[in-house]
Amino acid sequence: MEDFVEKHLELIEQERQEEVAQGLSLLSTDLKNIKELETKGVCLSKLGIESERIGLFGRHIVTFSHRLGRHKLPTHSITCGDIVGIFSKGQSLLPGQLVSGVVVKSSDVHLGVAFEELPEEVSLGGLGDCLQVVKLANDITYKRMKRALNDLKSMDPILSSHLVDVLFQATPPGPSHSKWTYQLDQLQTQFDSSDFKFFNQSLDSSQKRAVFFALSRPDVAIIHGPPGTGKTTTVIEYILQETLTLNNKVLAVAPSNIAVDNLVERLAASSPKLKIIRLGHPARLVQSVLQYSLDSILASTDGSDIVLDVRKEMSSAWSKAGNAKSSSERRKWHTEAKTLKKELIEREEKLVQQILSGANVILATNTGATPTGPLKHLPIDHFDVVVIDECAQSLEASCWIPLSRAPKCILAGDHKQLPPTILSDKAARDGLAVTLMERLVSVYRDQVTTLLTTQYRMNHNIMKWPSQYLYEDSLTAHESVSHHLLKDLPTVTITTATTIPLLFIDTASCGLYELDTPSEESKGNEGEAEIVLAHVKELIGAGVREGDIAIIAPYHLQVGMIRERLEANGISTGKVEVHTVDGFQGREKEAVIISFTRSNKKGEFGFLKEQRRTNVAVTRARRHLAMVGDSETISREPFIKGLLEYCTNNGEVYSAHEYIDTASMIQAESVATDQQEGFAIKPVEEIKKKDPPSPAVDSNKLAQQRLSYEKQLKEFKKSSEEQSSITFPNTLSSSQRKIIHELSEELGLSHVSHGEGNDRYIVVSRSRKTNGAECSDSTTEDDKIQQPLMIKAPQIEDTVCCIDEETISIDVTEKKNLSKVASLPPPSEAKTKIDVKSKAKDEVIVGATVGVWQCQICGIHLPKENSELHQLRCEREKRRVEDIVKKKKQESELKSKGSQKKTKSEKAKPVEQLDDLDLLLEEMKKADKTCNFSGCKKSVNHLGIICPFCKKKYCMTHNIAETHGCEERARRMARKDLEKELRGDGKGTTAGRKSDSSKRAHLQRKLDKKINDLSADRQRKKPSS
């Protein structure tokens, strides 16, 4: 035990130092970093005090707002419960010099902060009227954990040395009590226990067994609850049995305030007889449990009137101290206020002791159960049992804070899900990530552990994978959820998505690569974000409520990209929740979409190698789970590979070629390192009905079929021109069709799926060569009919136009100059000359039920259902090319006018280059992707910054205005900003609009001194020879 304590004290210190380094590294210097802190959302500046009042236990509640009036506060991440520091403008940011408090209110215009103590020498009035609020690291937690470990080492004031010996394996766990062993035997033989009554009659057999097991253990019991198995329900039943049946006192804790509040809500709803008290700062509690908080009960109990009077007198004393005109008068009222505060605390402590003693169950966070808090008013042997919920997410050191309060403990959680968040990688590797629950399960196993086996969340197809890979295939889906699907929800129509419980959309071979960001930065994938958006639209279009959909991604950058796309398409991110895996643990939704994000040639998969992270992401879904990812990248992790193989055999696998529309694919290709030729695919709005669930397919069989399909397609490509297309039958599964799409794309063949449901089949063909609307002379009428309805864009080398960092492939009929595209006649003048001999023949050969449409801009032939999207795309490209030509001509004319020394041949050279639009566009492409600073060749495709003055894009080295030639503009802008700040923005109070004469005079003196110094320096310099 001594070695454990010493090691964990060292690990906790490492973790504390890492948090300080991450959270306060910017605070240890000066005010130069204020803007950076504001950008990160951890600092608010230019605040003033709007009001003050006295709260419970003499806390000072101060409300801050913008110093110029009711301006909205900038966007920030400071929320209720955060610890913040208050400092004035110009004050050092060293933590020791800050006045710290807890945020109790956060709105668009106000920030309320509670202070325990306001020393006279550091009063808020002395900090000025222009205050800054900065979010601080919570050092209190580490101090409490260190104290608990030191108390454990000295065994004082530890109540039960036997429990400590069991938890450290010095003594084996004690035998179960005979009474409860009998009940377990009765349950095992399926007989009802006549002398035992459950408060919750709907418990299943595994939950009842867990309750009996926990009651029978004399020292320690572990309730292992996999996702959706009703772990909290079981814990609630156990607490009710301990308190109301056995009349024991229970201390229930959890690592987070959300988890504790969940227990409070469930306990309060289970029995009105139960006396519940929730410890903790009211600012950290949800609204529904405030009535059970200690502060709320204290305010409504007998004797609270006297406490209220003392608080009013104290508030009055503080107010008089603040308005005092002399220091002696101020000290007088400060002394009076401190005397009243002492009396207030004494009276409140007596009431607290009375209230806590009468409670059946007291709830708090792990660190909130500290002996220096309200529990200090209770004797050390007050509690009979400690219940630690979500123990697998708690640092073991934090668990020892409540464990010192009782001779028995019940641990509940799931060590197969996410562990506690640890900032220090070194501390995690050295053992800090190993939780108490995980350690005891590995040592005692079934001796102290009971597993809940019936889950009430997931469709059995979603549940089966985690059950097999993580829970020894022991989970079963309750009949109420085993086969539930999205289509069973009210207002939801029957579509492919609403009838499929498990779907994987594979982006392999689609060029949807992740953004090229530094390895230490977050990751994003624009292509996957587009696919996620398309799938969300499909679900909403089928009638699924936005509030029933959630999106999970392993990276914050990807979460932000998905949120932006949802908002841009009118989908509320307040309803369709988008979170990281860590931010969604313990939650569930009817439909969950996972974006794996990673797609690269190196096969790097980062966070995905954490099995518990993947388990949490997968098990959040109830009726529908859709996963989007690059199978070639993520399958290099064996655990993920097993998930993909399971999905292939038990769900549906779609290629991104089948799923997303052309526009989404082209946009995603702009970030790909290996770009592929353009192709047309039906928009998601047209793909409402895909395929029924396919039968299980063996992976070895799929590999053999891939070789067979590859050979068949290669032979077709080498065959004579007489055979224009090849049709694959509708008997193929979605996995087999995905293989054909991928192979066709690799071989440069056109590929498209036709039909719906069981009639879906694929037509693979060569690219048609056309001239405008005319077919080639060598093409027969029968060939025209046999052409597939969707034709892949021809192979064109120099027809890529890069504008605004987007690489757009333009479909044309032959390898010609883009000038022909720019000069095409308007759609009204184009004519279609497609001669279809027989509709019946067309249906027999192609199997289509729709007509052929010809684009009037580029001449390509497409199915009618793709016409609108393709026409929009061509018109957009035509306009862009015209704009480029016009812009380049204007630049060329300006150059020719300004260069008088050039010869006529030199002046004509840019105009001649305009004739070759292919070369022009290639130069434009390179220019848009390269830093605009003269001589710099760095790429700005992803990390470029646009100058706000010249509107040009520069690399990270040359983005400063002074570096690339915009120094004078920047100087003028800075001068205007300074003048505006000096005279006020005109929107505040009258005092705010008046100029500060003393400040202006001070600045003028500084400016004059600087000018004189510069003049003196120039006079001292000797003239150069």
Provide an overview of this structure.
- It contains 35 helices and 32 strands.
- The protein is of the alpha/beta class.
- Among the domains are: 1-145, Elongation Factor Tu (Ef-tu), domain 3 (Beta Barrel); 460-666, P-loop containing nucleotide triphosphate hydrolases (Rossmann fold, 3-Layer(aba) Sandwich).
- A seven-stranded parallel β-sheet has the order 9-10-8-11-12-7-13, sandwiched between helices. Strands 1-2-5-4-3-6 form a six-stranded antiparallel β-barrel.
- Helix 17 crosses helix 18 (556-568) and helix 17 runs antiparallel to helix 23.
- It is flat and about 95 Å long.
- It catalyses: ATP + H2O = ADP + phosphate + H(+).
Compact summary:
By secondary structure, the protein is of the alpha/beta class.
Summed over residues and divided by their number, the pLDDT gives a mean of: 75
Query: N-to-C terminal Cα separation, in Å?
Result: 81 Å
Taking the sheet with the most strands, its summary is:
7 strands, parallel
* Physical arrangement of strands within the biggest beta sheet: 9-10-8-11-12-7-13
Task: Give me the number of helical elements.
Answer: 35
Which geometry do the CA atoms define?
flat
The top-level CATH class of the domain at 460-666 is Alpha Beta
Structural class assignment: alpha/beta
According to DSSP, the number of beta strands is 32
CATH structural architecture of the domain at 460-666: 3-Layer(aba) Sandwich
Strand content: 5-15%
**Are there runs of 5+ residues with pLDDT below 50, and where?**
189-194, 661-697, 768-850, 900-915, 985-995
CATH topology of the domain at 460-666: Rossmann fold
Q: What is Rg? A: 35 Å
Helix content: 40-55%
Domain AN1-type: 925-974
Catalytic activity: ATP + H2O = ADP + phosphate + H(+)
Subcellular location: Cytoplasm; Nucleus
Family: Belongs to the DNA2/NAM7 helicase family.
